[in-house]
TrEMBL record:
Residues 525-534 have a biased composition (Low complexity). SMART domains: AAA (SM00382). Residues 513-534 are annotated as: Disordered. It holds the Pfam family ABC_tran. The keyword RNA-binding does not apply. Keywords: ATP-binding, Nucleotide-binding. The lineage of its organism: Bacteria, Pseudomonadati, Pseudomonadota, Alphaproteobacteria, Hyphomicrobiales. GO terms for molecular function: ATP binding. This is ABC transporter ATP-binding protein. Belongs to the ABC transporter superfamily. It comes from the Bacteria.
Length: 534
């Protein structure tokens, strides 16, 4: 609610629609935000930029009422307000579209939207409002469809529609294009520009700096929890914005150099698997061959079989035929994760918390879990914890992993720093085969460059690498060839220099059939194991 006292004077120009002044947020001895000032005006798209761990998420949560500041004030039209919870924020006209969808899979579109709407707005009235808003903004949805049956782009529409149905004055968007095809991203940009033209304010958080330069007229840059600058992104390059974020220039990713072909190391031979449950995606006649020194990129929209393909490669799902999966010529289809690791493979799953790392455990303990099957054993049958601590320190040093203390819990690291640790842990094992899913999802430009360079260098040493990614720019930067996964079928790989974003975008959207698809029904059921990929 608004307080009687007035806010600090605006930093220049008219009174902002929303402001944050002197924001400090401490978690024990750690200061996530340190004296942050931010002004957001009606009719603008304002970028909030910073490397992983810079304090963006903390500030965003304060503005949406998920956290209260230790010090400082938030203002609405010049009056100090207290945002005790998201309901208070929504009452003032603040809406938020989260990076990770907060949707209930088994509910319909309308039921998911009803969860945040007034109790009186249900049934036909709600369906009509969804249809009307969808027609106005080009965000068409079927209110009766269950969420589990929708593409990632359609799920993004639900998040935006239920935000807009609350008629927000300020819309906060966190990495909104991370799961969209190029065509879907263009459609989203048109919606955002219309919202701006209607006089709404938008706070746009993204590591895709070309998008920021296209959409935003002002940017506030955070580093180490503090504001280090503001600028007009249109007057900057992506590289200069990245340099402001990290404080130094971002290194160019060097191309890999491989001394000739090393022969086929990873082969999938007509792999067909049913969906691993009611809402998964069956894999249909998947065939791929990856040689030593080669990086194969696999593009696709989330929900088209990426998780299922990763599970089939890692051993979480086992193939009906042992020879359907071969590592260095050895049949691996019936083998689990540990046995595949012993064949020289390593795996980086998409979800770093819970799948790639156990959040309450220290980095050394996570290193111990991932290496116990392949490292030299003690007489007690376990890798020594001291050796695991040494490995964790090697990863921290080699990949610039930043955390509180020498051996922090995995869950205390920012997303980008935990991603660097997980990738580094696998790469420092010098695997002959690496499968990595969404290697730089949600990480800043410097961390992304470090991860991509490490993948290129590993391939340069003769490893076969499969990179599953929704970021086409990433695949064009590091992959030798790219295939598209759509509805569980994989297209024929095409050399990176012989295709385009537009061509891949069509395949990602289901326009054109993958050449390797046979349309045959799934064969025998997969045998799934419960162990996480660590």
């Amino acid at each position: 609610m608004a307080a009687a006292s007035a806010a600090p004077a605006p930093r220049g120009g008219p009174t902002p629609l929303f402001g944050a002044y002197g924001i400090v947020k401490r978690f024990g001895a750690f200061t996530a935000n340190d004296g942050v000032d931010l002004e957001i005006r009606a009719g603008e798209i304002h970028a909030l930029l910073g490397e992983n761990g810079a304090g963006k998420s903390t500030l965003m949560k304060i503005l949406y009422g998920l956290l209260e500041p230790t010090e400082g004030v938030v203002t609405h039209q010049g009056d100090i307000v207290r945002l005790a919870n998201p309901e208070a924020a929504r009452a003032l006209g603040i809406g938020m579209v989260f990076q990770h969808f907060s949707l209930c899979e088994n509910l319909t579109v309308a039921e998911n939207i009803a969860l945040v709407m007034p109790a009186a707005l249900t049934g036909r009235a709600l369906a009509e409002r969804i249809a009307r808003l969808g027609a106005d903004y080009g965000l068409h949805l079927d209110p009766a469809r269950p969420v589990w049956s929708l593409s990632a782009g359609e799920r993004q529409r639900i998040e935006i529609v239920r935000c807009l149905l609350q008629n927000p004055k300020l819309v906060i968007l966190d990495e909104p294009t991370s799961v969209l095809t190029p065509g879907e991203a263009e459609a989203l940009f048109a919606v955002l520009e219309r919202l701006r033209d209607e006089g709404r304010a938008l706070l746009y958080i993204s590591h895709r700096l070309d998008e920021v330069r296209r959409l935003c007229t002002r940017a506030t840059i955070l580093r180490g929890g503090r504001v280090v600058g503001t600028c007009d992104p249109r007057a900057e390059s992506a590289r200069s914005l990245a340099a402001m974020m990290v404080g130094t220039g971002v290194s160019e990713v060097r191309p890999k150099s491989v001394g000739g072909s090393r022969g086929e190391r990873l082969v999938l031979d007509r792999l067909t698997l049913p969906a691993p449950g009611l809402h998964g995606t069956p894999l249909r006649d998947i065939a791929l061959r990856v040689a030593g020194g080669e990086i194969l990129g696999i593009a696709g929209i989330a929900g088209n079989g990426q998780a299922e393909l990763f599970d089939a490669l890692s051993g979480e799902s086992r193939a009906p035929a042992a020879g359907a999966v071969r590592f260095d010529g050895r049949a691996a289809g019936h083998l689990g994760i540990n046995a595949r690791r012993r064949l020289g493979a390593a795996f980086v799953p998409e979800e770093r918390n819970g799948h790639a790392a156990v959040p309450p455990m220290n980095l050394s303990e996570n290193a111990l879990l991932s290496r116990h099957a392949t490292a030299p054993l003690t007489r007690f049958g376990l890798l020594r914890l001291g050796a695991a601590r040494a490995l964790a320190r090697r990863v921290v040093d080699a990949f610039d992993v930043r955390g509180a203390g020498p051996d922090p819990a995995a869950g205390t690291l920012s997303g980008g720093n935990l991603q660097k640790f997980v990738v580094g842990r696998e790469i420092l094992a010098e695997p002959g085969i690496l499968v990595i899913n969404q290697p730089t999802w949600g990480v800043d430009a410097a961390a992304a460059a470090r991860i991509r360079q490490a993948v290129l260098d590993l391939a340069g040493r003769g490893s076969a690498v499969v990179v599953i990614s929704q970021d086409l720019d990433e695949l064009f930067e590091i992959a030798d060839s790219i295939a598209v996964l759509h509805a569980g079928a994989l297209s024929r790989p095409v050399p990176t220099g012989a295709t385009s974003r537009a061509a891949l975008g069509l395949l990602m959207g289901g326009v054109g059939e993958p050449e390797t698809q046979t349309g045959e029904p799934p064969a025998a059921p997969a045998i799934r194991t419960a162990a996480p990929v660590l």
